[in-house]
Amino acid sequence: MPGPDPDVAAARLAVRGALADLPAGVRVLVACSGGADSLALAAATAFVAPRQGWSAGAVVVDHRLRPGSDVAAARTARLCRHLGLEPVDVRAVDVAGGPAGTGAGGPEAAARAARYAALRGACEHHGAAAVLLGHTLDDQAETVLLGLARGSGARSLAGMPARRGPWRRPFLALRRSQTEQVCHAAGLDFERDPTNAADGPWRAADGSPLRRAAVRERALPALVDALGPGVVEALGRTSAQLTRDADLLDAQAAALLEQALVTGEPPEDQDDDAVVLDVAVLEAAHPALRTRALHAAALRAGATPGALAAVHIDTVDALVTAYHGQGPLTLPGPVSAARRCGTLAFGRP
């Protein structure tokens, strides 16, 4: 008797490996949009979960950004139930700014924030041990290129982690073509959202094409044309290598931060939760560790993670390495950073 399609087998193996640490009896949820990646993930999880003793359900997020989105969400929910997933939770969200989006990231970032908030809420409501996301190796390659274009550091260039908090991404080693084949083999008719395209109606905050869609449809194909096949896999290897490097540097930076912490009463003009660091300890550290420690200190003091950029940290670093009487700095959050009497204090202004 012939076995399953090779891509179907690869998808099932990926799910089994991603959840191997979970005991029998726990519940997992698949985030399913109706696209090929998430439907393939739903099918693989529906097959694997009962055989491993897990309970598997799904979450369908309706962003309400295009006409008929509720109909599409209901159709996706029916497919998930047909696969055997239960419960299937359909959650409608409000995306800040609607199709125009708000903030620097435009509609992509606004929709992402609303989607992850809904997924987290579903995870807590259903007591799930994990939420599975359908990102593929192609998505990872796009993330690496986007990070390069922004001039990001190693952690951003490392791309999406296979596991962080409740999120798990079993398909980071699978190509998008494989997830489509899984759907074809299972007889699943997946959706192609016309609004999520470089030439679609949605635009980035500056009016240009959606960043990820432009990378997917234009930049990656151009790189393959110029450099030959294997570009996506090579970017995936870069991501994996940088993940290892960033993990080590982050661990060493965390140790540096703990070493530099000054205990006791914060300065009079800072709140009780201020993070105060010894400048001498920071100044003696390698820049790669020091800037990471400064970033972590700012976040600990309440800075906004998505808005705190390298340019902010470089300015704070100058308070340590090139101090000539600069006044307090204001960071996103808002959080201030000020040097005085051999210390660097982060806190609410």
UniProtKB/TrEMBL annotation:
Catalytic activity as recorded in UniProt: cytidine(34) in tRNA(Ile2) + L-lysine + ATP = lysidine(34) in tRNA(Ile2) + AMP + diphosphate + H(+)
Key words, A-Z: ATP-binding, Cytoplasm, Ligase, Nucleotide-binding, tRNA processing
EC numbers: 6.3.4.19
Keyword ATP-binding appears in the UniProt entry: yes
Residues that hold ATP according to the record: S33, G34, G35, A36, D37, S38
The keyword Metal-binding is assigned to this record: no
Cell compartments where the protein resides: Cytoplasm
Pfam families for the chain: ATP_bind_3, TilS
tRNA(Ile)-lysidine/2-thiocytidine synthase N-terminal domain location: 28-199
Domain of life of the native organism: Bacteria
Leading EC class: ligase
InterPro entries attached to this UniProt entry: Rossmann-like_a/b/a_fold (IPR014729), TilS/TtcA_N (IPR011063), tRNA_Ile_lys_synt (IPR012094), tRNA_Ile_lys_synt_N (IPR012795), tRNA_Ile_lys_synt_subst-bd (IPR015262)
UniProt domain tRNA(Ile)-lysidine synthase substrate-binding: residue ranges: 277-339
Free-text note regarding domains: The N-terminal region contains the highly conserved SGGXDS motif, predicted to be a P-loop motif involved in ATP binding.
PANTHER family assigned to the protein according to its UniProt record, in alphabetical order: TRNA(ILE)-LYSIDINE SYNTHASE-RELATED
Similarity annotation: Belongs to the tRNA(Ile)-lysidine synthase family.
Functional note: Ligates lysine onto the cytidine present at position 34 of the AUA codon-specific tRNA(Ile) that contains the anticodon CAU, in an ATP-dependent manner. Cytidine is converted to lysidine, thus changing the amino acid specificity of the tRNA from methionine to isoleucine.
The protein's name: tRNA(Ile)-lysidine synthase
The gene coding this protein: tilS
